[in-house]
């Protein structure tokens, strides 16, 4: 084929053939919306693609431009622009179901259907009412009174052991003795401040100006290993969080001194990654509120007047799918037209989700960085944006929330699941990650009270903001926060 004379459809097939040749994939695995990461196109393959596409087109093809393309069709468009043969590439994908075709144009369906505010309010109000019930049913009823104090004691035991290794014995010091500060890498400044604050709160130390002085409280009488065994035996449903504390605790001294890397420790092994995934998918501290979110979606979707147009739901920072895996079966069971776009900043997590959920024709997958200006096609496109345990990890809540607001239709809303109170073991584990300390918007900690979320959401244009609450103390640990686009 002479490239300059290729029609758009032929061009698409030719580029697909070159992709298959370079990547070793079959033609049906290279779809228009296949992301380059998903196709395994890295810098080296991009260079090879550029070489072959140059040969085919007779023009200079830059590998950097290939890598900038979001997906396969983006590369076709790039080659098309080089060849200057018009912009009429047909989809060429006759295998697509009508629902998937519809899903490709987010705004096509967003014209005449509306999500009545009264319906959302009704669904949220019935969801709020069951907060305490879900806490008790979800093994969280004794969390503040028993589980959390014991997991904090476990962290203290690990801390005391780490300080001992770093040359400061809290154990053998007597009340009133001065304690020397332990050495640590400068990047752990804020993390260390939290530790000293925790030791102070637990009355193990007092601060006397810049001096640290041993206070009266005894150190845990059992070792961290013994405390962990007791906890795993007494509170097995909370094992995912104890297991994570057990990943970081014994290596704390090595991390602080730079002998070990926190990210490698937590995410560098399959076991570590599984433990994090289990935390979001299985632990009661997350499950209770994810179940509540699913309950809300069910209450809402059942009430939404149907006019055949799909409800557009986008999940941000969906990660390993703790929320997705609960929401999808509920939505699938309800049998109403939905387009659910699963997104994350991590291309590999999006690719993994695409493989996992390939049987769900109503799902789409996209890499989205909530801190960046949304793609124009996403603007005012979504009825519902969901995000669990993600937005707090961004540099600026105002920027992220404004971006979210811009992707919502005027009748849409965001629902965030966020931890709104600090829990010592959470800092103990995630404080080792640089991502925990990214915030640069005036926050003092990654996590913020719900009133802070409300203030920022209103500042960036959300209308009413509401959140779950209950009588139980656990009701304030995490909350579903809803913000109406207008
Ligand atoms: C704690 S995990 C989320 C857990 C997940 N929502 C669940 O329910 O299992 C945080 C996720 O946010 C993602 N993330 C971090 N920064 C992001 C950003 N700027 N934009 C989008 N996603 C982001 C991370 O890649 C990670 O998958």
Automatic annotation (TrEMBL):
Biased composition (Basic and acidic residues): 93-107
Xref: InterPro entries: ACP-like_sf, HTH_51, Polyketide_Synthase, PP-bd_ACP, SAM-dependent_MTases_sf
Keyword set includes Nucleus: no
Pfam families: HTH_51, Methyltransf_23, PP-binding
PROSITE patterns for the chain: CARRIER
Location of the Carrier domain: 6-83
Keyword Protein transport: no
Stretches the record annotates as Disordered: 89-112
Source taxon at top rank: Eukaryota
Keyword terms, alphabetized: Transferase
GO molecular function: transferase activity
Name by which UniProt lists this protein: Carrier domain-containing protein
């Amino acid at each position: 084929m002479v490239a300059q004379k290729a029609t758009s459809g032929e061009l698409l097939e030719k580029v697909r053939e070159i992709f298959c040749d370079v990547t070793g994939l079959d033609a049906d695995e290279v779809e228009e919306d296949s992301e380059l990461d998903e196709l395994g196109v890295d810098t080296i393959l991009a260079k090879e693609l550029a070489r072959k596409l140059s040969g085919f087109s007779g023009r200079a093809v830059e590998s950097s431009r290939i890598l900038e393309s979001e997906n396969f069709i983006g590369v076709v468009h790039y080659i098309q622009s080089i060849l200057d043969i018009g912009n009429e590439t047909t989809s060429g994908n006759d295998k697509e179901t009508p629902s998937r075709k519809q899903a490709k144009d987010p705004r096509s369906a967003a014209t005449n259907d509306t999500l009545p505010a009264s319906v959302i309010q009704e669904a949220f109000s019935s969801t709020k009412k069951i907060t305490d019930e879900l806490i008790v049913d979800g093994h969280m009823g004794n969390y503040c009174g028993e589980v959390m104090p014991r997991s904090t004691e476990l962290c203290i035991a690990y801390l005391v052991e780490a300080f001992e290794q770093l040359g400061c014995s809290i154990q053998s010091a007597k009340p009133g003795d001065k304690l020397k500060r332990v050495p640590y890498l400068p990047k752990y400044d804020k993390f260390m401040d939290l530790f000293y604050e925790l030791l102070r709160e637990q009355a193990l130390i007092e601060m006397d100006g810049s001096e640290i002085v041993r206070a009266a409280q005894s150190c845990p009488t059992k070792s961290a290993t013994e405390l962990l065994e007791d906890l795993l035996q007494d509170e097995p449903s909370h094992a995912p969080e104890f297991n994570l504390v057990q990943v970081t605790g014994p290596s704390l001294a090595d991390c602080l001194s730079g002998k070990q890397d926190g990210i490698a420790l937590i995410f560098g092994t399959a076991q570590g990654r599984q433990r994090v995934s289990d935390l979001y998918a299985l632990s009661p501290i997350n499950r209770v509120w994810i179940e509540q979110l699913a309950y809300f979606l069910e209450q809402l979707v059942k009430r939404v007047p149907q006019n055949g147009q799909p409800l557009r739901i986008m999940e941000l920072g969906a990660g390993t799918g703790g929320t997705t895996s609960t929401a999808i079966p509920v939505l699938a069971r309800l049998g109403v037209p939905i387009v659910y776009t699963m997104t994350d900043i991590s291309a590999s997590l999006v690719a993994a989700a695409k493989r996992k959920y390939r049987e769900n024709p109503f799902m789409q997958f996209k890499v989205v960085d909530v801190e960046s200006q949304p793609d124009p096609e996403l603007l005012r496109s979504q009825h519902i944006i969901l995000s669990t345990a993600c937005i707090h990890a961004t540099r600026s809540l105002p920027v992220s929330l404004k971006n979210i607001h811009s992707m919502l239709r005027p009748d849409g809303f965001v629902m965030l699941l966020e931890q709104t109170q600090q829990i010592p073991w959470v800092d103990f584990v995630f404080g080792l990650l640089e991502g925990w300390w990214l915030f640069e918007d005036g926050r003092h900690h990654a996590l913020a009270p719900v009133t802070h979320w409300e203030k920022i959401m209103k500042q960036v244009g959300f209308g009413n903001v509401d959140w779950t609450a209950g009588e139980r103390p656990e009701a304030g640990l995490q909350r579903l926060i809803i913000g109406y686009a207008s």
